């Protein structure tokens, strides 16, 4: 970062153009810079911080010390102060708070909301804070401030631009709408503008394969069984086939994958059935790519999509399009099954946030499907849209009610704000009725429906969880929004009732484990053996929808048992095909590991992953499943250690979210080597869905953590046969409806809710995440 003089008179300093770098650099500058105000400066008159920069920075320092604000946020304000001598304290405060919101998932600082609930603008209190000698709160600081005064202060030609004016180059942008004011770091304001512009232009454009209604109706009839009631999967296919931008949202098991496979078949059938362009012998299939935000999510979609494409009956569809129909195997082969990560698709490059593909070097494709789109943050969504050729389609799949991305933005949630109500215009309803053959229920019609509404379909029937499934019922009860007819009390009761009033679950697939405290040995038993006794009938005798028996719930002992029992006898590790026994073993252990996962809300303390991981290691060692020293369990490597990759590593081909298991393999690589000691290697499934195993030496793994316990945030995009969700015993703002819903819906066959019964479930299900952004408002 080049330094500027304090008194330069350039009204819009260009070094602010990319705040990511500016703020990162300034963090260091601030750390180095001697700003020796004693913290006491903020203790006397709190209000002084509104009028005096020294007092403000003393207060910010105390917030940083407490972990209420990030050093980066304070550094940004300090950087602005150094660069622009006359920046008022209230502007610098707003800048620090706007920066802080990014770290908490919000895209901007909403001034009205901040004034209504000032303390929510900080991370207050962070996990593990002892609350002694607290610094003054934002509510004490802002008690007398009103919106108009604060807004008027956010005018500074070098620092703040008006979002309604032509774009400038200031580091901050002020956006005023509907009497409210939002302050953005420019980069994030620009992402919103890009997303709005690029989705907006897709919504108004017609598609190349704008099939005539008769052909489309015939093709849809070939893919879906006719019925009297609207089939939302069919409607979703229809809507997505006519727009360059489409969203298909739905809860777990509502058929998002099933629908998108049919949609891909439909799009390819329509493309192959088109009359060939002059000069070319045959019509060209569309170039379609499938992607997901994490390696884990990509691998999961890969597996389910490949299966579904194989099972899809294409005979009628192939006959329904074109003059003589299309060739079935050409059609099947044209449906992609390989799923990549978004980072890989865009071509990420080390040490820069810029991708190889962008507007100047667009992706070579006609359609892109993104699964688990709720995990895509605003920066990535803007990058994807920018790199898409204008004529390419974008189809987003995801569950709008899941936790949003860890990074700023909740793009899918913003886009789907009105999905529940449909809001289809009479013209859309008429068209849908013509192509699907069924009428659209009145309650989904809206004369005032917006273009975005017409591109969104919500799948509403779960095909995985029926009325007998406690997991499905619980997810539904937790997810139900609070409304006038469904207040907090009713919601808490509805959720509690699912577990039964006598402590015995009413449903075969869910159990509640009451813990006395964080040290309760019942938690150890749960993680070791899965606590089948907590389920009706000990978890025995259940069958899935196809009548196949469901194995009773397990804990981590299961994969460790497979690890021990299936260990290959081959005394050398092997290369290529010779490694087969070890690859098979790793595949079995990894599959067994997917049978159980403990999820928790926090990172720190006895209820967070940092406390739980060593504790579970000790419990498994006591039960005889692990052999490791205390030091190895707490900080080192040991056989059986499951690890989660926490940062993409392109060199190793590992993605954030990948899970591997540490296994001891012979050091000898071939039959001719002298057999000897064993060596620890971590086995990861490759993310290409091939089922191959990647063996990595622990020393090469830069960013991994033990994953006996996993945060719910990290579990998105994954599914476990038995999921145990552990709630802490004290209130925490992180406990929200979205978090509990996301945790519950990771369970495929069994769910255990472990908690102390001190009301944290009640508290969580009645608190909703509010992500501040201007996107929903911009698009409707
Ligand atoms: N219309 C349907 N009729 C019967 N079964 C269906 C239907 N749609 C989907 N299924 C079945 O329901 C299960 C879940 O479907 P699918 O995997 O497509 O859902 P999803 O929404 O993608 O799930 P996830 O929550 O895992 O993302 C699958 O076994 C699928 O075969």
UniProtKB/TrEMBL annotation:
Top EC group: isomerase
Positions of the UvrD-like helicase C-terminal domain: 707-753
Reaction catalyzed: ATP + H2O = ADP + phosphate + H(+)
Xref: SUPFAM superfamilies: P-loop containing nucleoside triphosphate hydrolases (SSF52540)
Note in the entry: In the RecBCD complex, RecB has a slow 3'-5' helicase, an exonuclease activity and loads RecA onto ssDNA, RecD has a fast 5'-3' helicase activity, while RecC stimulates the ATPase and processivity of the RecB helicase and contributes to recognition of the Chi site.
Family: Belongs to the RecD family.
Assembly mode: Heterotrimer of RecB, RecC and RecD. All subunits contribute to DNA-binding.
UniProt-recorded name of the protein: RecBCD enzyme subunit RecD
Organism: Billgrantia zhangzhouensis
């Amino acid at each position: 970062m080049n330094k500027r003089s304090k008194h330069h008179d350039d009204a819009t300093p260009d070094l602010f153009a990319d705040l990511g770098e500016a703020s990162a650099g300034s963090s260091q500058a601030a750390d180095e810079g001697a700003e020796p105000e004693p913290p006491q400066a903020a203790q006397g008159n709190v209000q002084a911080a509104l009028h005096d920069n020294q007092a403000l920075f003393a207060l910010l320092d105390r917030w940083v010390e407490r972990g209420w604000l990030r050093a980066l946020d304070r550094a940004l304000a300090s950087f602005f102060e150094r660069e622009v001598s006359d920046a008022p304290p209230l502007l610098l405060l707003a800048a620090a708070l706007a920066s802080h919101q990014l770290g908490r998932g919000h895209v901007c600082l909403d001034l009205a909301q901040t004034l209504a609930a000032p303390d929510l603008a900080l991370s207050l209190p962070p996990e593990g804070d002892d609350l002694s000698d607290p610094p003054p709160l934002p509510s004490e600081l802002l008690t007398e401030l009103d919106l108009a005064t604060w807004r008027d202060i956010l005018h500074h030609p070098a620092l703040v631009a008006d979002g309604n004016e032509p774009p400038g180059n200031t580091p901050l942008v002020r956006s005023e709408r509907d009497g409210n004011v939002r302050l953005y770091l420019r980069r994030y304001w620009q992402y919103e503008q890009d997303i709005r512009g690029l989705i907006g232009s897709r919504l108004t454009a017609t598609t190349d394969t704008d099939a005539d209604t008769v052909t489309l109706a015939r093709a849809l009839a070939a893919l879906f069984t006719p019925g009297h009631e609207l089939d939302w999967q069919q409607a979703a296919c229809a809507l997505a086939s006519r727009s360059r931008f489409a969203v298909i949202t739905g809860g777990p098991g509502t058929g998002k994958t099933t629908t998108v496979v049919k949609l891909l078949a439909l799009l390819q059938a329509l493309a192959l059935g088109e009359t060939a362009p002059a000069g070319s012998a045959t019509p060209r299939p569309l170039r379609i790519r499938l992607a997901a935000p994490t390696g884990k999510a990509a691998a999961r979609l890969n597996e389910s999509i490949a299966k579904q494409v194989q099972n899809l009956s294409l005979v009628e569809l192939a006959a329904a399009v074109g003059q003589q129909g299309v060739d079935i195997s050409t059609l099947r082969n044209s449906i992609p099954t390989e799923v990549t990560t978004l980072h890989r698709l865009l071509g990420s490059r080390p040490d820069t946030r810029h991708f190889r593909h962008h507007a100047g070097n667009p992706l070579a494709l006609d359609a892109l499907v993104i699964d688990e789109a709720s995990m895509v943050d605003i920066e990535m969504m803007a990058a994807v849209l920018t790199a898409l050729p204008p004529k390419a389609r974008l189809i987003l799949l995801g569950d709008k009610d899941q936790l949003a991305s860890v990074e700023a933005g909740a793009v899918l949630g913003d886009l789907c704000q009105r999905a529940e109500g449909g809001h289809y215009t009479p013209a859309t309803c008429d068209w849908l009725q013509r192509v699907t053959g069924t009428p659209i229920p009145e309650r989904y019609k809206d004369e005032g429906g917006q273009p975005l509404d017409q591109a969104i379909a919500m799948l509403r029937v779960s095909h995985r969880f029926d009325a007998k499934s406690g997991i499905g019922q619980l997810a539904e009860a937790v997810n139900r929004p609070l409304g006038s007819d469904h207040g907090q009390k009713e919601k808490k009761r509805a959720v509690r009732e699912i577990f039964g009033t006598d402590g015995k679950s009413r449903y075969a697939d869910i159990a509640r484990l009451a813990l006395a405290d964080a040290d309760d040995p019942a938690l150890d038993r749960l993680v070791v053996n899965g606590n089948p006794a907590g389920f009706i009938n000990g978890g025995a005798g259940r069958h899935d929808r196809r009548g196949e028996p469901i194995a009773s719930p397990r804990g981590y002992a299961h994969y460790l048992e497979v690890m021990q029992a299936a260990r290959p006898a081959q005394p050398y590790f092997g290369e290529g095909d010779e490694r087969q026994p070890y690859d098979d073993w790793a595949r079995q252990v990894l599959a067994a590991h997917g049978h159980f996962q403990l999820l928790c809300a926090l990172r720190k303390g006895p209820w967070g992953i940092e406390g739980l991981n060593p504790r579970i290691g000790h419990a498994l060692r006591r039960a005889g499943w692990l052999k490791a020293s205390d030091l190895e369990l707490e900080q080192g490597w040991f056989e059986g250690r499951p690890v989660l990759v926490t940062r993409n590593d392109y060199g190793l081909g590992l993605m954030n979210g990948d899970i591997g298991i540490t296994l001891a393999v012979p050091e000898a690589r071939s039959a001719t080597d002298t057999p000897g000691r064993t060596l620890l290697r971590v086995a990861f499934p490759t993310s290409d869905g091939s089922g191959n195993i990647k063996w990595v030496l622990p020393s090469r793994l830069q960013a991994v953590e033990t994953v006996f316990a996993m945060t719910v945030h990290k579990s998105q995009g994954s599914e476990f046969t038995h999921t145990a969700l552990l709630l802490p015993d004290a209130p925490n703002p992180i406990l929200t409806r979205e978090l509990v819903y996301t945790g519950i819906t990771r369970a495929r066959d069994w769910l255990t809710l472990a908690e102390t019964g001190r009301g944290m479930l009640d508290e969580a299900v009645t608190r909703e995440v509010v992500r501040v952004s201007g996107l929903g408002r911009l698009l409707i």
